[in-house]
Specification:
Layout lengths: L1 E7 L5 E8 L6 H16 L4 H10 L3 H13 L13 H19 L9 H12 L5 E4 L6 E4 L3 H20 L25 H13 L7 H13 L3 H5 L6 E2 L4 E7 L2 E6 L2 H8 L23 H9 L14 H14 L4 H8 L16 H18 L19
Antiparallel strand pairs: 1-2, 3-4, 5-6, 6-7
Helix pairs in contact: 3-4, 4-5, 4-6, 5-6, 7-14, 8-10, 8-12
Length: about 400
């Protein structure tokens, strides 16, 4: 004989919950007390039967992580923007789970993980406890796991999302990541100096003589003139570009759909590209339809083209070009909304969702910043002479 509780959830579903078989500790009195406790959970909107099933499905944190990734890949885990995670983001999540979370906390049961455990994970990753080399899914692929404070912060952020997922599925009633103090976020505020702009210009001019992959050199120049994220430029397709309107419409960026103005200088780069397929800046292999996964290596070669003082420092990355572009725009007096529209920052207005081409103000701003970039790199300025719009009444 067994004691069973029959109840209905808030959604009206019938549930049968087996409390236990008759005998120690279950007697009519203890089973009745347990049933009252469970009914109290039901009145609070919980589902004891579903919670028990979820705990069985994910007994350990490693199993919970696998459930989370499976649902995320199926599009059932949404971001703050209420959209499914991108494939590239899921690949990063998978790497953080396999290389950090599972080795440190994977065997722990979901309900046993405490805030102290999460803090221990944070400091272990920061100290390099999970550092090393691991194979990737690619043929002869090798990932160098370095750890560090930034990696620790990112992993703890992902772990918080995983436990939030567990709470939604009634595997836990709390999130142990809440209240964990992370390291100060070392925001990348590196920008090119005037000397480094000159070095960048010389490196780009030498790239052709040094037989650097033309698409890589073109992509680097394009990034310097637009302030785009490198992933956006490398994934740019010709059908997203309208040279007549000097506009690029990106359907899938970090912040969703984005309409970007293209300066005359940026359009000149695009017109000079050897068009061989769907992608504007394709990889060396394929028929112009393979994204350039080796751009970082190409960038390193480009950076090393200079000698002595004319060589770009090692800490100059493609992201440095983005920050330099926005900094130049601020130097020229453009407002944050204008800069955000040029480079696709968050915080765009609701109206921007319905814009299909860049307006004259944005085009003028893009030209002004690109012209200043060319001037600093030692290249001739384009014919269009665009004057910057300063802050003040009626400023962009």
């Amino acid at each position: 004989m067994a004691y069973v509780l029959h109840y209905r959830t808030e959604e009206g579903r019938q549930r049968w919950y087996t409390i236990g078989r008759h005998g120690s500790p279950w007697t009519p009195e203890t089973a009745r007390a347990e049933a009252q406790r469970l009914l109290g959970e039901v009145r609070r909107g919980l589902d004891p039967a579903a919670s028990r099933q979820s705990k069985r499905l994910a007994a350990t944190l490693a199993e919970l992580c696998d459930l989370y990734l499976a649902d995320a890949m199926a599009g059932r885990v949404l971001t703050r923007s209420k959209v499914a995670k991108k494939t590239s983001t899921l690949a990063i999540d998978h790497g953080r789970i396999e290389r950090h979370i599972k080795p440190l906390l994977g065997p722990r049961s979901v309900g046993a993980v405490t805030r102290e455990d999460v803090e221990g994970l944070l400091h272990d990753i920061a100290a390099g406890k999970t550092a090393g080399k691991t194979k990737t899914a690619k043929k002869r692929g090798l990932a160098r796991v370095r750890g560090g404070r930034t990696a620790a912060n990112r992993v703890v952020g992902l772990l918080g999302a995983i436990f939030a997922y567990a709470m939604r599925h009634r595997m836990r009633t709390d999130n142990p990541v809440r209240g964990v103090v992370r390291f100060a976020d070392g925001k990348r505020d590196r920008r090119l100096s005037d000397v480094e702009y000159v070095a960048l210009g010389k490196a780009l001019r030498r790239a052709k003589d040094k037989r650097l992959w033309p698409a890589a050199a073109d992509a680097a120049r394009f990034l310097a003139l637009t302030g785009w994220r490198s992933g956006e430029a490398l994934a740019l397709r010709w059908d997203e570009v309208d040279l007549g309107r000097r506009t690029a419409t990106l359907g899938d960026t970090k912040t969703g759909k984005s309409v970007r103005p293209l300066s005359h200088a940026a359009c000149d780069v695009l017109r000079g590209v050897n068009r061989s397929g769907d992608l504007v800046f394709p990889a060396t292999r394929g028929d112009g339809d393979v994204i350039m996964s080796g751009f970082k290596k190409m960038w390193k070669k480009l950076r090393e083209l200079g000698e002595g003082k004319e060589r770009l420092p090692n800490d100059v990355t493609p992201h440095t070009l983005r920050h330099s572009f926005t900094s130049l725009a601020a130097d020229l007096g453009y407002s944050e909304p204008t800069i955000a529209a040029m480079v696709g920052h968050k915080g765009r207005s609701m109206t921007s969702r319905y814009i299909h081409s860049a307006d004259a103000v944005l085009l003028a701003a893009a030209d002004a910043v690109a012209n200043r970039t060319l001037e600093l790199m030692g290249d001739a300025k384009p014919i269009a002479d665009i004057k910057p719009i300063r802050r003040g009444r009626g400023a962009a």
